[in-house]
UniProtKB/TrEMBL annotation:
Its main location: nucleus. InterPro entries: DEAD/DEAH_box_helicase_dom, DNA_helicase_ATP-dep_RecQ, Helicase_ATP-bd, Helicase_C-like, P-loop_NTPase, RecQ_Zn-bd. This is ATP-dependent DNA helicase. The keyword Transcription does not apply. The keyword ATP-binding applies. Gene3D superfamilies: P-loop containing nucleotide triphosphate hydrolases. Residues 1-20, 372-391, 661-763 are annotated as: Disordered.
Length: 763
């Protein structure tokens, strides 16, 4: 392992770190090339070097990392950095290594060989490591706790830094249950300073962080939230002819600069990426529906400028340090001002002029209100009552709505939302409301005139709705939902199961881009289909670890049910029992992929979700009807109720899902199933095989729904080409669409399948 460079003019550090500001500045210069400290960096560094706990609130891109990186260089021992995202750890570690600073991270994505090297180094008399990045999950394990205690007993634990510390608070915008697990650190290491860092914490969250971590008499440092180099702007979707075109024009007219576009849903990420790619804009989608290796490639390509625009869900970006992001767009309304600040704050970390453009739509507002109204019931919420949280959630949301629907200074609105006082002269025409007040006022007037506008009112629409909240499959929900973590959570779960599945994925080409990965997956899938009937390797740990757990199956069913519910909302005229239908769809994926493991299974679930997000009601109806017919014709086992619900069917008559899923879990797949089920094929409805009313003798042996020849689910590649064709069709329709008619969230799939050519998406 690389040794730290010797510091100019002295030793590599002292136990108590008694360094003068000048000496600290020379360390900054030597390793990072900066001539002076920014904001409150020096105070934070001095606080922890003197052994004090410290709570540090600095704006996004303000340089919080330096507050523990400099102490790591001047103190004896290792600085432990707790971070919520693997991508963030990887990013920081590789940047530190490039500067000759010995840093490592421990996570499920690390190879065993690397992990062993790190552990050997920590166990050695004089570890060469200066910074060790870990996940909160790992810190909570007894094995790692013991390792830390050993390190501490040898006087080699220098500091514990907790990055993105707001994640520990249920009141914060990004609460992560795993952060709760680190609250015992203060007790465990009473003499080691703890440094808590965040960019986004309102006063209540600040207090919560300090008390949750039991910081002792901490030095509290707060810098202004103002980001003077970001120009803030709101555009109104309901007043635009075509939002996609507006975004591509914005990107083109800015010279295809490095940008991030945030969307609420994965399907929108894929869809918008396709549109931008067709417009010649180098772009890639990033969301939790893609496997971790694909996400890493997307991130690498973007960090190294091979891709200019990332179209992402909130899964992307926390702490990602690309300095020259010039534009951050919100394609959908964020859930709070804190989220908006954090996400828009990824622009201009190099302090150069940058833009935040939020696309505000009345429909988005309505949907987000609905999501938030129901989200508290899904949260794990130790200290607070759900009513309190739900009220807070809605109050937070109303702040961002106010930001969009008001004609006063945007900058002032942002800063004041964090409880900071603002001088009236602060903005200096660096937001649209201050720069073009008349234009903004007139747009707001136009918005009021949009038909059925619920402008300035709390939408009543969902108060009476019978729609179930779980229909919305958004990333910020999934992140909070530990059950669905297996493939939803971008943040690390340090369990070995995940680690092993990653080892399996790592056999895929790592540098060949998405197409190469897709081909490798397809080859593996074909190989599997050819080798069907072969017996599973016995006893191998790896095989067991790749197995699809019941929890994962339940989570997948939930996800499919959510996607079905969304489809129902999107298309309105659909009628089916979501949970029974979800159970059928999940079983299809399970039966097909249980032998090859959860990676393929997850991909198939994701493909089905994508298909649901873009299919027409006819397509979905046909497919579910096929499932219903098959289960009826073949006398499916009790509990596998029909998917299609007659109009008059009441709540009480809906199928009992628990029974359905239990039944499916027990059903052993037959080899016949493998013969009859086709691999991921077409999505064009016209080419889908019609529901079979009868099946051959072979199929009859197994009387469960699983033996049917189900309609095909598109692969990702097919999905994207279909999208291309649909886009071409719908954009020709959009030309004739009247101004003021908002674009539909989902593409309209032409019955004919469309004739447009699809340009390959760059990923
Ligand atoms: N004193 C300094 N002078 C100039 N640049 C600096 C200084 N300190 C840090 N930076 C640079 O500022 C950028 C942002 O730093 P950093 O990633 O630590 O921000 P952050 O506060 O953690 O932001 P976020 O909240 O988004 O994670 C980095 O590229 C870093 O190298
Ligand atoms: Mg940071």
């Amino acid at each position: 392992m690389k040794k730290a460079l010797p510091l100019k003019g002295g030793s590599a550090g002292s136990r108590h770190g008694t360094k003068s500001p000048k000496e600290l500045e020379s360390v900054l210069k030597q390793y990072f090339g900066y001539s002076e400290f920014r904001g409150r960096q020096l105070e934070a560094i001095e606080a922890v070097l003197s052994g004090r706990d410290c709570f540090c609130l600095m704006p996004t891109g303000g340089g919080k990392s330096m507050c523990y990186q400099i102490p790591a260089l001047v103190k004896t021992g290792v600085v432990l950095v707790i971070s919520p995202l693997i991508a963030l750890m990887e990013n920081q570690v590789s940047s530190l290594k490039s500067k000759g600073i010995p840093a490592e991270f421990l996570s499920s994505t690390q190879t065993t060989a690397n992990k062993n090297k790190i552990h050997e180094d920590l166990d050695s008399g004089r570890p060469s490591l200066k910074l060790l990045y870990v996940t909160p999950e790992l810190v909570a394990t007894s094995g790692f706790k013991a390792k830390l205690t050993k390190l501490h007993n040898r006087g080699l634990l220098g500091l514990v830094a907790i990055d993105e510390a707001h994640c520990i608070s249920t009141w914060g915008h990004d609460f992560r249950p795993s952060y709760r697990k680190i609250s015992s650190l203060r007790k465990q290491f009473p003499d080691i300073p703890i440094l808590a860092l965040t960019a986004t914490a309102v006063p209540k969250v600040q207090k919560d962080v300090i008390s949750s971590l039991s910081l002792q008499n901490p030095v509290i440092l707060k810098a202004s939230f103002n980001r003077p180099n970001i120009f803030y702007e709101v555009r109104y979707k309901d007043l635009l002819d075509d939002v996609y075109s507006d975004i591509s024009n914005l990107l083109k007219s800015s010279g295809n600069v490095c940008s991030i576009i945030y969307c609420l849903e994965r399907a929108a990420c894929d869809d918008l990426t396709m549109h931008l790619s067709q417009q010649g804009i180098s772009s890639a989608a990033y969301h939790a529906g893609l496997n971790s290796k694909v996400r890493t490639t997307v991130l690498d390509d973007w960090l190294s400028s091979r891709t200019q625009v990332v179209v992402a869900t909130v899964a992307f970006g926390m702490g990602i340090d690309r300095q020259d992001v010039r534009i951050v767009c919100h394609f959908n309304l964020p859930k709070s001002m804190e989220s908006f600040y954090q996400e828009s704050g990824r622009a201009g970390r190099d302090q150069q002029p940058s833009r935040s453009v939020l696309y505000y739509g009345l429909e988005d507002r309505r949907r987000m209100e609905f999501i938030l109204r129901n989200s508290s019931s899904r949260k794990q919420q130790p200290p607070s009552s759900s009513t309190e949280l739900s009220e807070k959630t809605l109050a937070d949301f109303s702040q961002i709505v106010d930001y969009c629907e008001s004609s006063t200074c945007r900058r002032k609105k942002i800063i004041e939302s964090f409880g900071e006082k603002v001088q009236p002269t602060l903005c200096q025409r660096t937001c649209d409301a201050c720069k073009h007040p008349n234009q903004v006022a007139s747009r707001l007037e136009d918005l009021r005139r949009v038909p059925n506008s619920r402008f300035n009112k709390i939408s009543p629409v969902f108060k009476t709705s019978s729609v179930d909240p779980k229909h919305f499959d958004t990333e910020f929900w999934n992140r909070e939902d530990d059950v669905s973590r297996s493939d939803e959570d971008i943040s690390d779960s340090d369990d070995e199961e995940e680690a092993l599945s990653n080892v399996a994925i790592s056999k895929l080409p790592s540098k060949g881009g998405f197409e190469a990965r897709l081909e490798a997956l397809e080859r593996a899938e074909n190989a599997y289909n050819q080798a069907k009937g072969q017996t599973k390797p016995q006893g191998g740990n790896l095989v067991d670890k790749k197995s699809i757990s019941q929890a994962l199956r339940d989570a997948s069913r939930k996800r499919l049910s959510g996607a079905l519910g969304q489809a129902k909302l999107r298309l309105e005229d659909l009628r089916f029992a979501e949970e029974a239908s979800a159970a059928h769809l999940e079983t299809e994926c399970f039966k097909k992929y249980q032998k090859v493991g959860k990676t393929f299974y997850n991909s198939q679930i994701a493909a089905t979700v994508r298909w649901l997000s873009s299919s027409s009601s006819e397509q979905i109806h046909d497919r579910l009807e096929a499932l219903t017919n098959q289960s009826t014709d073949h006398g499916a086992a009790a509990g596998s109720s029909p998917c299609i619900i007659p109009d008059a069917l009441g709540e009480a008559e809906k199928p009992a899902v628990a029974t359905v899923s239990h039944k499916f879990a027990e059903t052993e797949p037959s080899d016949e199933f493998a013969k009859t089920v086709v691999s991921t094929e077409h999505m064009e409805p016209s080419k889908m095989s019609p529901p079979e009313k009868s099946i051959g003798e072979e199929g009859r042996r197994d009387r469960t729904i699983g033996t049917m020849d189900l309609p095909k689910i598109p692969s990702f590649r097919e999905f994207m080409s279909q999208k291309g064709r649909d886009r071409a069709t719908s954009s020709s329709r959009a030309e004739s669409q009247p101004r003021g008619v908002p674009r539909k969230a989902g593409p309209v799939i032409s019955k004919e399948g469309g004739t447009g050519t699809s340009k390959k998406m760059k990923l």
